[in-house]
Amino acid sequence: MQRTPLKDFVTKVGQLKAATALRMSQGGISKALKADREVYVTELDDGSFEAEEVKPFPAQTQRLAG
């Protein structure tokens, strides 16, 4: 099993096929790409796909300039 960045996965298969493989909408894929989210796609042994997002822990809050 190899993790592939979402951007590379979409470049390879297209947004519609990526969305279908990940059981989500094409709009969700587009939004994740535009937001530059750190998402990785893994192909499982049975040929299905799963995705995971890497986020800072604990969640970082954006501080307003004061």
What would you say this structure looks like, in words?
The protein is an alpha+beta fold. It has a single domain (3-53), classed as CRO Repressor (2-Layer Sandwich). Helix content is 36%, strand content 20%. The protein contains three helices and three strands, in the order βαααββ. The protein has a three-stranded antiparallel beta sheet with strand order 1-2-3. The protein is globular and about 35 Å long.
What's the short story on this structure?
With 66 residues, the chain is α+β, with helices and mostly antiparallel strands. It has 3 helices and 3 strands.
Biggest β-sheet, characterized? 3 strands, antiparallel
Task: Please tell me the total number of domains.
Answer: 1
Instruction: Count every helix, treating DSSP H or I runs of 4 or more residues as helices.
Output: 3
What is the third-level CATH name, the topology?
A: CRO Repressor
* Tally of DSSP β-strands: 3
The CATH superfamily is identified as: CRO Repressor
The rounded distance between the terminal residues' Cα atoms is 47 Å
Helix-residue proportion? 25-40%
- Report the CATH C-level class: Alpha Beta
Shape: globular
Query: How much β-strand is present in the residues?
Result: 15-25%
InterPro entries: Cro-like (IPR000655), Cro_sf (IPR038202), Lambda_DNA-bd_dom_sf (IPR010982)
Protein name: Cro/Cl family transcriptional regulator
GO molecular function, one term: DNA binding
GO biological process, one term: regulation of DNA-templated transcription
